[in-house]
Each structure stands twice: as structure tokens, then as C-alpha cells.
Amino acid sequence: MLHYFDNAATTPVRPEAVQAALEAMTQGWGNPSSQYALGQQAADRVKSWRADVAGALGCEPGEVFFTSCGSESDNWAIQGAVEWNRRRGKHIVTTAIEHAAVLEPVKDLERQGYEVTYLQPDRRGDIDPAQVEAALRPDTVLVSMMLVNNELGTLLPVKEAARAIRELGCPALLHCDAVQGFLKVPFTPKELGVDLLSVSGHKIHAPKGVGALYVRKELADSRRFAPLIRGGGQEGGLRSGTEATGQIAALAAAARLGAASMGEDIAHMSDLKAYTIEQLTQAVPEAIVLTGGGAPHILPVSLPGYKSEVVVRFLSDRGICLSSGSACHRGRPSHVFAALKLPKPVLDGVLRLSFSYDTTREDADALVQGLREAREVLFTAMS
Predict the structure, then answer these.
(1) Distance of CA 224 to the CA centre of its chain
(2) Contact at 8 Å (CB) between 243 and 39?
(3) 173-177 and 211-215: which strand pairing?
(4) What average pLDDT does this structure show over 51-66?
(5) Burial level of 284, CB count in 10 A (0-12/13-18/19+)?
(6) Which value, to the nearest 10 degrees, does the dihedral of the CA atoms of residues 292, 304, 315, 69 take?
(7) Which CATH number is associated with domain 15-260?
(8) Residue 331: pLDDT band by 50, 70, 90 thresholds?
(9) Residue 328 catalytic?
(10) Tell me, what's the pLDDT at 327?
(11) Rounded to whole angstroms, how far apart are CA atoms 279 and 156?
(12) Which CATH number fits domain 262-382: 3.40.50.261, 3.20.20.70, 3.40.50.1820, 3.90.1150.10?
């Protein structure tokens, strides 16, 4: 039996999303740009699916633009923001614990002459809102800050960043990578005060290969916000490429259903997270919970003195799937956990558990039992 605890990496596609994709590919497979009936039927469906995603996000349909993934959404937001503000400065503010889909394009801009301020977290992965205000300058053109950290589950002060930008009269656009926050914590783009916001399908039980970018109406309508992909002028001229109707249909279904049950799902994941912490600390007293607050679906722990990669393989052999927090890049620790400046034995033993609406207490019990066995079996070799 499979016990899956890596939902922050990807989620199983829910049956309703599979069915929606199948119908789009077998019944409504026309090109939405075509003028005959089959194409126009597909265009009408894309319009409906856009409304579904916008409803789940709490924004207008005209502010939602479909992409191939969260990484594309992040890259597009960053490139579009600096192009929008190209005459106002060359300073960017972000955090040291962003996803690589943000850090890599920012580093590329740094090589092109932009100056970047990387906000550092404290030992628990929190970013102090005062850091954001202190980092803002008259030439700051972009602030990019994730809503939920994908490895720690900590919540970042996006709303406070928006307030600081407004109060200081800073020209910066605010981008939020909400890939781990969408349908996991309540928000709307307007409540956060963001200009741009990225989401991904495969984190919310839709297939891989689809995402979306929220672009605030004033930006989207201005004709100044630059496309990342140019061509046939789809997505209002902002994201060319024939619409991936199967994936979009599945994203819409997952978003619609996830929004309808979000309160119940959050409560379930929060309860399961608390239960797992309780059982784990009793069964494996050496285990350290690195942070237990923030998002309901992510729990980073460490087994100090044990190599996390070895523990992950040990559990995999027993049908338990979870993520290692170290050795992400040729033996180097994750940049997120490295930023916490943890002692090496703690850093080496980091594991990330992540839950979903369909994770059960039986799954949690199997995980705790597997970690207890790992401690007993691997102790001699790893101590």
C-alpha cells in the first residue's frame, strides 16, 4: 500500500480533473482560435474555465492568463515587471528562500546589471516585515515574495510588503509565487495587494503542464505588460500559443472543486499535521520539528545524525513517499534549509512531509512507524 507524503512536490490528479481533460480532448478538441463552430465551442469552454479559475482565486476572469506551469508564470511575472518599470530603476527585492523559478531569473537579471537585495530568514524561516520596508528604495522596480515556502510551510509577509510599497510611494510591482498557497491558505490577490501572482496545476490535483498568472487588471489592460511568449496572440495577446485545452479543463475542475471544499480541506490537513507531530514526537523523541506553524500541509522535520537521503530510500522500500531536505543538488543542501543556518547534523537529517485532503491517519501511523524502524535499523550505520 502506498502512503504518500510529498504533496508539495506534486499531487495525484483528482478523478474529476481527469474526466474534464478527457472530455476536452475527445469531445471539444477544436482550436479555440478557429472561426468554425468546433473552434468557437472550444473558445467558449476556455472562457468558462477561465471563470472557474478566477472564481477560485477571487479575481476577475480577465486577470487570469493560462501558462504551462508555475515556473513559466514566475519567469513571466519577473520579466514583465522589470520591463514595465525599465525606466524607473534596476533594483529588485526578493528573499533567499524563494523557489528556483524566482531565484534563477532574478540572478540572470543580476548578471545583466540589476542590483538584488535578498532578504534573509530567521532560524525558523520567517521573514520580518521590517526587512522589506528597510530594503525598498526609490529605484526598486520589483518585489517578489512567495506566499508559502515550499520546504518550510512558513507564511511570508506579502500583505505587509504591499503596504510598505504603497506607503513609501515605491514604484515597485509586487509579485507573489502562490504555488504552495493556492487552496491551502485563504487569500485573494486584492487582499494581498499584489500586482502579479503565480499558481500551478499539479499542486492542486490537476495535471502537470498547466498553470496560471494573475495580472492585475490595470496592468493587463495597459498593453504595456510584456509577453514572455510571442506568436499568434492568444490569451489577449499576452501569452501566445494554442491553448492546452485538456490541461486547462483539468485545472478549472480542480480549482473549482478545491475552492468549494477549501475550508474543510484546510481543517483536515491542520488536524492531520498536529496528529503527526504528536505521534512522531512520542515514537521518535529525537525528531525535531523545524517549524509547525504556517501552512496546514507542510511539515519539515529532522532526524539529527541520520542522512535524510538514506531515510527516504528506506521508507520508499516500505511504500512511504516523502522528500529529503538535503542533497538536492549533487550533495549540497537545499538553499532554503541552508539559509536557516542549522547545525550540520540537523541539516543532514531534514525531511519534508506534505499532506493533502486525501491523506489519512492510517497514512500518518505508517509514516511514524516507518521512521521509528528507520531510527532502529539505521542507527548503527549512521551514528
Answers:
(1) 27
(2) no
(3) unpaired
(4) 98
(5) middle
(6) 50
(7) 3.40.640.10
(8) low
(9) yes
(10) 39
(11) 28
(12) 3.90.1150.10
Question: Is the dihedral angle over the CA atoms 19, 25, 26, 27 positive or is it negative?
Answer: positive
Choose the catalytic residue: 69, 170, 176, 328.
328
Q: Would you state the pLDDT for residue 378?
A: 87
Can you list the alpha helix ranges (DSSP code H) found in 223-332? 245-260, 262-283, 308-316
Mean pLDDT of the 123-152 span:
97
| 240, 23 Cβ separation under 8 angstroms | no
Has residue 328 got a pLDDT over 90?
no
Q: 541552508: which residue's cell?
A: 338
Q: What is the pLDDT of residue 326?
A: 45
Closest CA to 153 of 204, 105, 97, 200: 97
Q: Given phi > 0 = left and psi -120 to 50 = alpha, else beta, which region is 152?
A: alpha
Grid cell locating 293: 506553524
Which amino acid, 305? G
The 211-215 sheet, strands edge to edge: 64-67, 211-215, 196-200, 173-177, 140-144, 91-95, 115-119
Instruction: Return the domain boundaries, the chain.
Output: 15-260, 262-382
Each residue's pLDDT tens digit, 228-246:
999 999 999 999 999 999 9
Note the pLDDT of residue 222: 87
